[in-house]
Amino acid sequence: MNIISLTVWTLENNCFIIYAAMIVCFIAFTMFHKNRMEAHYSRTAAKKKFAPTGGGRERDYPNDEDDPDFLVPAIPEDTPHIPYIPLRRSDEEILQRSREYYELMAKRRTVRSFSTEPIPQEVLDNIVRTAGTSPSGAHTEPWTFIVVQDQETKAAIRSIVEEEEDLNYSKRMSRQWVTDLKPFATTATKPYLSDAPALILVFRQTHSWREDGRKRMHYYSEISVAIAAGILLAAIQYCGLVALTSTPLNCNSRLRDLLSRPVNERLELLLPVGRPHSEATVPDIARKPLEEIMIKV
Fold first, then answer.
1. Eight-state DSSP code of residue 110
2. Do the beta carbons of residue 139 and residue 74 sit within 8 Å?
3. Distance (Å) of CA 190 to CA 107, 113, 154, 172, 264
4. What is the torsion angle, in degrees rounded to the nearest 10, for the CA atoms of residue 23, residue 29, residue 32 and residue 37?
5. If we measure between CA atoms, which residue out of 246, 264, 155 comes closest to residue 207?
6. Using CA atoms, how far apart are residues 278 and 293, in angstroms rounded to an integer?
7. How many angstroms separate the Cα of 170 from the Cα of each of 156, 174, 189, 191?
8. In the beta sheet, which residues pair with residue 215?
9. Model pTM?
10. What ranges make up the beta strands (E) of the chain?
11. Spatial distance between the Cα atoms of 45 and 241, rounded to a whole number of angstroms
12. Of all helices (H) and strands (E), which one includes residue 104?
């Protein structure tokens, strides 16, 4: 009987003992690994708990029970509440205004060809002020709007975006994504970034800092900034200007450095803003009807 035959015979006649031994080994290994993982997490938690507050990395989500000083609201706790008395309108007026506003916003289109005619500074101030009226989590207002009108800075932004977009279109984006963009005639070349009289870059603050130097948390910062961006687009449309909703992929850190923004800010949107070029065109597309976007309960 050779070695292979002996091995097969042993396995066949002692399978119960072998399977039992394998199960015992598996259980032992699992318990050993579990104990090691628990020890590792205990050491990690201890390091975080006793880490020095001066030089170490600050915890992203501080444990309020560890330090009551963290329990400071974003706005003063004694902020007074005042009566809210908006202008009372009749049902007929509400209906008329809703219809007029819909008709105005239904004309909003993304434009990729801009006139170089400048925009009055006060207009830009007012549309950003309007965006700043947006609601935000715990009234933390986690947004920064950078308005760029300097031609050299616009050219530098365009250079960064086009360099990254060339890589996006050729390597990073899926073939389906590039195919879906073809009807809109978009390419890695972005002339509107230097043609538009103003660029508004919307940065999201992941957090900010309290007066005592500790981190001030921003809640729902992504949706808060998204709502503010929507209000900004509505304000641009209302005053008779146009914009392009640009989300430059992989440009965040380079544009943040170019504009000297801190590391707690992240670029979410880049909006060229201005008047449309006299020969501007847009795709002849339709929006979903109300029945497809609204469900009545």
1. B
2. yes
3. 24, 10, 11, 18, 27
4. -120
5. 264
6. 33
7. 22, 9, 13, 19
8. 209
9. 0.76
10. 143-148, 198-205, 207-209, 215-217, 242-243, 265-274
11. 54
12. helix 91-106
Residue type for position 93: E
Residues 35-67 have pLDDT tens digits of 666 655 555 544 444 343 433 333 444 444 556
pLDDT digits over 204-214, tens only? 999 998 888 88
- The residue written with tokens 């690994």 in the block is 33
- Point out which residues pair with 263 in neighbouring strands: none
Please state, in angstroms and rounded to a whole number, the distance separating the CA atoms of residues 244 and 193. Answer: 10
CA distance linking residue 96 with residue 88, whole number of Å = 14
Q: How far apart are CA 204 and CA 145, in angstroms?
A: 9
> Angle at Cα 10 formed by Cα 5 and Cα 15, nearest 5°?
135
Can you read off the two tokens belonging to residue 279? 């020969």
CA distance 266 to 221: 11
E strand or H helix at 201, and its extent? Answer: strand 198-205
* CB 252 within 8 Å of CB 267: yes
Burial of 76 (0-12, 13-18, 19+ CB in 10 A): exposed
List the one residue out of 214, 265, 267, 187 whose CA is nearest residue 69.
214
